[in-house]
Amino acid sequence: MTDSIVFQNLQSAYVSLDIEGYMACLDDSFKFYFDPGEEGIRELLKNNWGIDSLVWGRTEERLSAQTLFDYIKSNEGGSLDLTLSQLRRVRGDDTSSMWMCDYYLVIEPPPEEGASVAEGRARFTLRKKRDTGFWYIVRWEDFGGI
After folding, report:
1. How many alpha carbons lie under 13 Å from residue 50 in its C-beta half-sphere?
2. What CA–CA distance (Å, rounded) separates 115 from 69?
3. How far is Cα 112 from Cα 1, in angstroms, rounded to an integer?
4. Under 8 Å CB-to-CB from 31, ≥6 apart: which residues?
5. CA atoms of 55 and 34, how far apart (whole Å)
6. Confidence (pTM)
7. What is the mean pLDDT of the chain?
8. Fold that domain 5-142 belongs to in CATH
9. Which member of 32, 35, 104, 116 lies 3.0 to 4.6 Å from 110 by CB, making a disulfide possible if both were Cys?
């Protein structure tokens, strides 16, 4: 199994609002790094999530994804569309790899106090677990608007 399968699984889980499938893509040590240059991000995280950091882990990622998925499910005709384009492996071997891509997320209907579109560039670090042979996202770095 190649590391690129993680991105297919990630997109599929996101679009189908499958929280368990989404979380299965993330390593137990997963960290998400927000773009420090994104205007208002620290204030948004502090006010909405009580987080005074530009990094969060697996628990916070699960809560934010579940909140988004629940929002979509509660709106008849709601949908998420996640596109990862220009996906390319920057470096790697048979146990770890780094990938870059552009992302485009469309949220329908748009949240009352939020954007209907999120786009930018992301860098992913993946690791293969020896015991299972499966690949997982260890680190996800966001680079805001492109």
Report:
1. 2
2. 15
3. 41
4. 55, 56, 57, 138, 139, 140
5. 6
6. 0.88
7. 90
8. Nuclear Transport Factor 2; Chain: A, (3.10.450)
9. 116
